[in-house]
Specification:
β7, α10 and β8 form a beta-alpha-beta unit. This protein has 388 residues and is α/β, with parallel strands linked by helices. α2 crosses α17, α10 runs parallel beside α15 and α13 packs across α16. A seven-stranded mixed beta sheet has the order 2-1-3-4-5-6-13. The protein folds into two domains: 216 residues, Rossmann fold (3-Layer(aba) Sandwich); 159 residues, Rossmann fold (3-Layer(aba) Sandwich), CATH 3.40.50. The two termini are 22 Å apart.
Length: 388
């Protein structure tokens, strides 16, 4: 547990959440949280996300959490005008970490925060030599990843504490969507990363439901001629609003992602009250759908869970109710506190002694229900920030 010097300790483990957030904001920036100036800087701005009014769960939700903005580097006049400058470790932006640190200096009030949301299965195709990343990961004030396995690898590169902070969701907005009547459809989610379609088709067939593959990108599939035969319908990826409609109208959604991820899609389904059977390799399935997690290659178990959802109404309602309760883990307020707690710990927290680290588990594989329990949500490696 972190120690927040200069702040009433009752706010550390209890009290009003907003009070805790305000205390953290004052300690870090000397101002109320609503006055924090946040910038996400990137060389590639997803225009579609802006056109959708920043509704998608994921990286861009941090802009809403801190009422901030996104800019190209060429449009930033002075990074020191901001309290938080946030960089995602996308391949086109990694070099910005060093550039921004050089511009703000070592003693700036501006906090440089870097995250990685590339699943570690993709690193070989996304990054250059590991020592290149090691050289730049000494510059951020705080580093975070979105799930356990990614953070485990990232901490080895950074030689410092890295935090598990999944990207936020606008849970309130998603829950406010008008429910759609359920159709006799089972929708399978397709990802361009693993292009997993053949084995999932064996899971969803012959249940008396129409099968459809959604989120499909033909250009990323080198066997599109076969994929089109595996489901009743194959629907191309679309905008977020139509995608949400496809999810909400489905009786069941199957999400068999084979990579390790926090998986924003099942955050969306949880908030919208959709029953999901999905991969136990994703954090949001473990948190929101504990009763229907399954290995993505376990065809028999996945089929059993789908049949139970179809035959057992009480189980179906339990799965949906649990998901809608647990998804609050990702809401704006919890994400805001989780971010500021980690930033405070990274700057002011004391590293544990090495002999103490060996006696306890310092990281949780994707849970961490208490946003203040950094021993369950962070991994300690190497020397303290003051020693580096």
């Amino acid at each position: 547990m972190y120690e927040l010097s200069g702040v009433d300790k009752k706010n550390k483990s209890g009290g009003d959440q907003q009070e805790r957030i305000e205390a953290l904001s004052q300690k870090l920036f000397g101002k109320p949280v609503k006055e924090i100036k946040y910038l996400y800087v990137t060389n590639y701005i997803h225009k579609q996300l802006l056109d959708e009014d920043l509704t998608r769960t994921g990286l861009y939700q941090w802009i809403n959490v801190f009422n901030g903005e996104v800019k190209y580097p060429r449009d930033v006049i002075n990074y020191n005008d901001y309290d938080i400058v946030h960089i995602n470790m996308a391949p086109q932006d990694v070099h910005l970490i060093y550039k921004v640190r050089q511009e703000i200096g070592d003693n700036s009030k501006t906090k440089l925060v870097v995250n990685n949301d590339f699943t570690s299965e993709m690193w070989a195709s996304s990054y250059d030599f590991p020592h290149t990343l090691e050289a730049i990961l000494k510059y951020p004030d705080m580093i975070f990843g979105t799930e356990y396995f990614q953070v485990s690898a990232l901490s080895e590169l950074a030689h410092r504490k890295v935090y598990i902070i999944p990207h936020p969701a606008d849970v309130r907005r998603l829950k406010a969507l008008t429910p759609l009547p359920k159709k006799p459809i089972i929708s399978t989610i397709w990802r361009r990363y693993d292009r997993f379609a053949y084995v999932p088709s064996l899971v969803v067939r012959n249940h008396g439901l129409t099968t459809q593959l959604i989120g499909y990108d033909k250009e990323k599939d080198n066997r599109f001629f076969m994929t089109s035969t595996l489901y009743d319908y194959v629907l191309a990826g679309t905008n977020f609003f139509e995608f949400c409609d496809q999810l909400r109208e489905s009786k069941i959604v199957y999400d068999p992602f084979t990579f390790h991820s926090y998986s924003r899609t099942t955050v969306d389904t949880a908030a919208m009250g959709v029953a999901v059977v999905g991969s136990d390799r994703t954090q949001s399935m473990k948190i929101c759908y504990p009763y229907t997690c399954v290995d993505p290659y376990d065809v028999s178990r996945a089929r059993q869970l789908i049949r139970r959802l179809l035959e057992d109404e009480d189980f179906y309602e339990l799965v949906v109710k649990t998901a809608k309760e647990k998804v609050e883990f990702y809401n704006h307020q919890n994400s805001r506190e989780r971010f500021l707690v980690a930033l405070h710990d990274s700057i002011y927290g004391k590293e544990e002694k090495k002999e103490d680290i060996k006696k306890k588990t310092t990281i949780s594989r994707g849970r961490g229900d208490d946003v203040l329990d950094l021993h369950a949500n962070s991994i300690t490696r190497g020397k303290s920030k003051n020693e580096q």
